[in-house]
Amino acid sequence: MNNFDYQKAATVSDVVGKSTFVAGGTNLIDLLKYNLTNAATLIDINTIGEHHDILEIEDGVRLGALATNADTAYHPIIEQRYPLLSRAILAGASAQIRNMATNGGNLLQRTRCYYFYDPHAPCNKRLPGSGCSAINGYNRNMAILGTSENCIAVFPSDMSIALSALDAIINIKSEDGERSVDFADFHRLPGDTPPIDNNLKPGEFITSIDLPLKGFAKNYSYLKLRDRASYAFALVSVATGLELDGDTIRDVRITLGGVSHKPWRVKDAEHYLIGKKADRENFSAAADIILQGAVGFAHNTFKIKLAKKAIVRNCMMALDPSTQLPGAQPSA
Amino acid sequence: MTQIGQPISRLEGKLKVTGAAKYSGEYKVPNLLYGYVVSSAITKGKIIKIHTESAEKIKGVVKIFTHLNRPGKAWFDMQYADMDAPPGASFRPLHNDEIKFNGQPIALVVAETFEAAREGASMIKVDYQETKFQTDLHSNLAAARDAKKGMATLLKPPPPKPTGDFEKAYAESDFKASGEFIHSTEHHNPMELFTTTTLYDGKGKLTIYDKTQGTINCQLYVGNVFGLHFKNVRVVSPFVGGAFGSGLRPQYQLFLSVMAALDLKRHVRVTLDRSQMFSFGHRPQTIQHTRFGATQEGKITALNHTSVAETSQFEDYTENVTNWSSMMYPADNTLFEQKLVSLDVNSPMDMRAPGGSTGLHAIEATMDEISYKLNIDPLELRLINYSTFNNAEKKPYSSKELKACYLQGAEKFGWYKRSPQPRSMSRGQKLVGYGMATGIWDAMQLPARAEAIITKDGKLHVKSAVTDIGVGTLTVMTQIAADEFGLNMEDVLFFYGDSKLPFAPIQGGSFTTATVGTAIVFASKALKKKLLKIAKTSNEAFKKAEIEEVTFKNGMMIYKDCSISFLEIINTNKDKPIRTTNFGYPHALKLRKYARAVHSASFVEVEVDQELGTIKVTRALTAVAAGRIINPKTARSQVLGGMVWSISKALMEETIMDAQLGKYINQSFAEYHIPVHADINELDVLFVQEDDKIINELGIKGVGEVGLVAMPPAIANAIYHATGKRINRFPIHFDELMES
């Protein structure tokens, strides 16, 4: 970590056009300590006077980018209208980290690939052209979908898996004005440009995240499978929202986490389910569609089968959300 | 009321939870310099050039030490060898341009602030000449060989010699079970980072606050390596934030801190960061094989257990993996073997229950396998093969209440509710399994000294250089000393964690309570004689008293109807304290006829999700026979810690070696998984009565390691019972249990 100047921002206009902001710092401080990020000036955006709140808006709810993950998860509006989001947030990190981490920062966190954090290991995400150590290395935690020959890193957020399923919209400000991006278009696959995680341009600033009205509060579930019960990134996670008419599926959202460089959502699978009976057989067929094209590596091929089973299980859990357990563990 | 046997809370507990306890990196020292280590980015080869120019320009950087400018130091390898050094040549930091393992310290940046030192370290670029390395045990098995012998072999004898004819007996046995068991590397990862704060006191004198399990071990090491008089080197370590074996040997931050302090004539603190704590000793990766044969009735007749472990290229670290089965089960035909493979890694070192927690998995999972083949209850199989005779040493045990562990443990756990067939128990969507296993650990005792003093105000002070690595040593030693004199805890002060105090060996192997406790008993006995002798000079009533006839209680010495207070005796002694320092030692002649061990039995219930394979250890019980329990509370905590670690070992913990890069890749607490609270459910500990009149004065055996030997295989066995799948690779990943 280098010595850097530290400034506090008062308004959004203080920060647009600039770079290296710190909000919760729950990932940035790691990156600084590992010498992966080297900012001459660090701008603290916690001191900005707005974008800290959870607000009801005309066609949904607006999450301030500077609201903490914990405040968001425990907010009555989120707990009541978007419990899927609440569940997903609470499945991530630890209580201490969630108290610090912000919603904007959550979307921008970097991968937890071992090799990315090791400054001496080849990594195309850290040092383009140096190679990918994970493809032929230890890849239990790595991606099975949307990978490229350059990078098989996974985007580690839990919150974003739910935001993807909820069709959230990201509001962005820059010197040129404001724009909104559909959640599905925000994160990127690694392709030939693994260093670029998302479509936020230099100088742009996330101000808030909008949740549309439909919150799937009646039938939802978040399931997270990992090697310990808490404080571990997902090997596979699933967010499911269901809208039912009797036992017929009227609307459905399924997003997979832990398997790709971005939240993995396949609309074909959702279309397949609409109008069908909410049962294991149909969920299983949808899971096959979602996992189409999945390719495993030496230590993570299990994720393909695990993801399919997790989708089915989580959809079944969504039929009765009371079966969900703390830590997004599989139902009893 | 006697203090021994009372569940007394740690005397230093409040200091620890309020932050008042100072660890080696927490002493406020004026004009302190900070050192940050630069670690090798390659695994094997040579340093061609170290570019220090830009680091030197960082404001506050004082000096950068490398192999080129390091001060001269000891010439001979022997002088680098510490009390716990395995055979070979101990690692010498900054010795030359040669790189022997990834993460090897190659430079120390010393600066006026920690931040400047760290920034400087990050700016150092190194040119290397890399050579081909080997870090993978599995692809180097052809190089397996016997270990060199040395001093360390005394405490870790090679496996027992073959008996009978194993191959024949195995071939002819009615029932056979065999397995290959693979264990990954593990690192100790104590919460406290390894830190040394060296105070340069002038005139070549040093006071060193070090994170260690042996103050005198570090004192001798520093004296030897830097050519200092031992009396000028004082190593202080009253609080240790966990160590688990990693503090048994001086780590390189001690060397670097002392080197810089002597060279710069300043106080210097060197702290390793978390990833650097993956660059020294570790539990070695191992591959084991077992083949056990049994009769129709379940009698084990043939035992074969082999192990191959990694070591470094410069030391032959050995842990006893295959010694245990013939200590437990009296088979006539045995064949044991332990081999090493030298790899380009740092030397492994002892880590909680070294060898035992590795070997017992293989032994107890193989026993479990046999029980299913024979259709005998796993507990019944152990009882069929029960013996109070140690077949490896051909001696009876000084005591062995393992049967009580089995029976009381099974009863309390509810073992008898188990249905025998695998996959026969379930709860909702979870398969339920019960597993059990046996544990064993050596009950060792080494010589140590202790000083006992009656102070001017009539209080008892007891002193030993021993550390308290968080296990309750301070509390337990105070209890032992208090009972010797019939005192309350408040009237006794135990001084420890300081090399200027009487000699104690490194704190490990579960031998500290027996070792230092016995020294305190010896010193107390000598002090009592002294007190009586002085009392006789002033008090007529005590003239004819023999020491055996005298009792001590509440600060009084009592003989028949007469009593004299410690204060009166001190008064007789011209108001001077009365003191004595004595050696306590094991009674070698008496003990020669006996084998000594502590035993345990663990019972585990797991739930495994039928569909997804996720594993939960829902409850576990460990029953322990460890002689006399001085403090049931701290002893229970020791066993609980071992049980939590058992869950870690069986299901989570591994340092992942990337053999292409030649380095460990999960060097952080985020990625090196140990259990979190959510992984820990119901844990129960039970101590059975075990009176050992042979082993030592107090009948102590020690409980540090025994919590981590039986439970890992019990978890594996419970998973087999739940799922019908026998996974012999640790840690067991849940995806291996996923429904096919």
SSE order and pairing:
The complex is a heterodimer of chains A (332) and B (740).
Chain A (H helix, E strand, L loop, with lengths): L4 E4 L12 E2 L5 H6 L7 E4 L9 E4 L2 E5 L4 H5 L2 H6 L1 H8 L4 H6 L2 H6 L5 H4 L41 H7 L3 E6 L2 E6 L22 E8 L6 E7 L10 E10 L2 E10 L6 E2 L1 H7 L6 H11 L11 H18 L13
Helix pairs in contact in A: 4-8, 9-10, 10-11
Chain B lengths: L12 H5 L14 E8 L5 E7 L1 H4 L4 E6 L31 E2 L5 E7 L2 H10 L1 E6 L35 H7 L2 E9 L11 E6 L5 E5 L4 H12 L6 E4 L15 H13 L2 E5 L14 E9 L5 E12 L13 H4 L4 E10 L13 H19 L3 H7 L4 E2 L4 E2 L5 H12 L12 E2 L2 E13 L5 E7 L5 E4 L9 H13 L6 E4 L16 H27 L12 E3 L2 E4 L2 E4 H7 L5 E7 L3 H4 L5 E13 L5 E11 L6 H20 L5 E2 L4 E2 L17 E6 L23 H13 L5 E2 L10
Parallel strand pairs in B: 1-11, 7-31, 9-10, 13-14, 20-21, 27-30
Antiparallel strand pairs in B: 1-5, 2-4, 2-6, 3-5, 7-12, 8-9, 8-11, 12-13, 15-16, 17-18, 18-26, 19-20, 19-25, 22-23, 23-24, 26-27, 28-29
Question: What's this, in brief?
Answer:
Chain A has 332 residues and is an alpha+beta fold. Helices cover 25% and strands 20% of the residues of chain A.
Unreliable segments of 5+ consecutive residues of chain B: none
Gap between N and C termini of chain B, in Å?
Answer: 61 Å
Please count the helical segments of chain B: 16
Overall structural domain count of chain B: 3
